[in-house]
Specification:
The complex is a heterodimer. Chain A is of the alpha+beta class. In chain A, helix 1 crosses helix 3. The longest helix of chain A has 36 residues. Chain A has one domain: 2-Layer Sandwich (Alpha-D-Glucose-1,6-Bisphosphate, Chain A, domain 4), CATH 3.30.530. By secondary structure, chain B is mainly α. In chain B, helix 1 packs antiparallel against helix 2. Classes of the chains: A alpha+beta, B mainly alpha.
Chain lengths: 183, 91
């Protein structure tokens, strides 16, 4: 059983600014309060291909993911580690992030894909963000009997967190816009 | 907690990473380079190398090896065309 959903959002900011904001999203101190479920973000690897202008990055995200009390008893922990793999293509102005959980894999598989591309109707000034998330409870796990309910709850939580993430991104973009106007 | 080697309680929420300052220094350098150079087409050379090396050294001394290995495995599944030089950073 898989729960999947898509979201799309248009930022009225150029791709360069939006992709830069994405890198700052978790670290920005003012915004940490909003994204308080993100505990740590570390960069594990980064590789720049100077010929193609492609930037590959691997990051580790540690997330606080509490559930109802019975979930904690089954799953045993509140902390989830995820790996985020990103490719930024400087030439085609495209950024793609894929995030997957690496802990709690006995119980659940979550994969989130986000793309930032110039908006087709206004490529120099606007950016489209498309996000696809899939959530799957492992069939033979202890959660299987309530899989549908857990998937639904997870999906709701992720959508709330995505909305917070977008709020943070908009804030960072506005800040960066004001900064660049001052220069 | 998080990715650190010591087996800490799983429900503490304070950020106690020993590499936090080095991480901030590296991320600040990267963010500047990204906005001022990379997105303007200047990707001819790597920058922030000194910051990266210090940060990376701290991480490799403090990261939980098992978690790191698993992260890099999943990362190469997500990017099959990427070269496997990411293994170097797991030292």
């Amino acid at each position: 059983m898989v729960k999947a959903y898509r979201q799309e959002h248009v930022y009225k900011h150029p791709w360069e600014r939006v992709s830069a904001a994405s890198w700052r999203k978790f670290a920005d101190p003012e915004n940490k309060r909003i994204l308080s479920h993100i505990l740590e973000v570390d960069t594990l690897n980064r590789k720049l291909d100077t010929d193609t202008g492609k930037l590959h990055t691997t990051r580790a995200l540690t997330i606080h993911a509490p559930g109802p009390w019975f979930l904690h008893r089954i799953v045993g922990q509140d902390i989830c580690h995820c790996v985020e793999s990103t490719v930024v293509d400087g030439k085609s102005r495209s950024m793609q992030l894929i995030t997957k959980n690496i802990s709690l894999q006995k119980f659940i598989e979550v994969e989130e894909r986000i793309r930032y591309d110039p908006h087709p109707e206004n490529p120099s000034a606007w950016t489209v963000c498309s996000q696809e998330t899939s959530i799957r409870i492992k069939p033979l796990s202890a959660l299987a009997s309530m899989a549908e309910k857990v998937e639904q709850k997870c999906a709701e939580k992720f959508m709330q967190n995505s909305a917070k993430g977008r709020e943070v991104m908009e804030r960072i973009c506005r800040y960066m816009e004001a900064e660049s106007a001052r220069v | 907690m998080g990715l650190l080697k010591k087996k800490d309680s799983t429900s503490t929420r304070s950020s106690t990473s020993p590499c936090a300052d080095l991480r901030t220094a590296y991320h600040n350098c990267f963010n500047k380079w990204y906005s001022e150079k990379f997105v303007k087409g200047q990707w001819d050379k790597e920058e922030c190398v000194a910051e990266w090396n210090k940060y990376r050294e701290c991480l490799s001394e403090n990261l939980d090896g098992k978690i790191l290995t698993r992260m890099l495995e999943v990362d190469s599944e997500l990017n099959p065309t990427k070269q496997a030089d990411s293994k170097e950073s797991s030292r």
